[in-house]
Amino acid sequence: MRAGPEEARVKLGSSLRRRRGGARRTGDEGPAGDAARPSSGLRVLAQPRVLGLAALVAFGGWGLGYLAATRVFFPTPDALTGLVEVPEVGGFTLPEVEQALATAGLDLSLVEQFRHPEADSGTVVGQAPLGGQLILPGGGIRVAVSVGPDRHQVPSVSRLPGAQAADLLRATGFEVVVDSVESDLPRGRVVELRPEAGSQLALPAEVRLTLSLGPPSIEMPVLLGLSEVVARDSVRALGLAVGEVEEVFRFGRDQGRVVGQEPPGGTQLERGTAVRLVVGRRGGG
User: Fold this and answer.
1) Rg (Cα) of the chain, in Å, rounded?
2) Which among 81, 101, 217, 226 has the fewest CB atoms less than 10 Å away?
3) Model-level pTM?
């Protein structure tokens, strides 16, 4: 049977309601549904992948640039290819240096001279480059050659006081060692100089200067009780001089004997000092 107009309208309304309800259920999934959408997931994963790709591209570009610089634009030479080892020439003479360098295929480019306290004249005491280093064939070698030590003449200081003599020797470049000794010269005067004046010495050198302490001292002996003759001989034997002899009156044993002296026994005297004697006499003087 064919449905009537009213029944047809009822069926059409039911169909429309079912469609709208299905659409609502699909759209009511909420935030969880939004997170699971394919389009949103692609946006979240895209950023780290892009960064990694950019880093890979940058590293690759650096590597290509390095290879181009080292292999094409600035290639490194083959290690040690064609280099010559510099010979050690310390202690050689110039003719020996020239021969050694010629054998090695090198040249002598510069010679400098200066005084050396120990090396003999004409001896090589330095070089550049150093022995054992590698340079290109035909390269130049610089050497320093000694002209010997600096030599000075020992000055004469015999008429100077000790302090001035030592200062003059030091000013000349010598090292001074000062000794002292008793002598007949006045205290502080130069007694001896070693090496002697006029000697040529290579610096640094040592000079020994001996200064006088003055005449040696003499201990005055005790002369009391000695006869006048023995006392006089004793004074002269010690390097002293017999000075004034005074006579005084004495009885018995003291006649002709020393009963007094000046200076007294035990006094330290310089050579040549005069000694005064007092001698006993029968008749008093």
Assistant:
1) 59
2) 81
3) 0.41
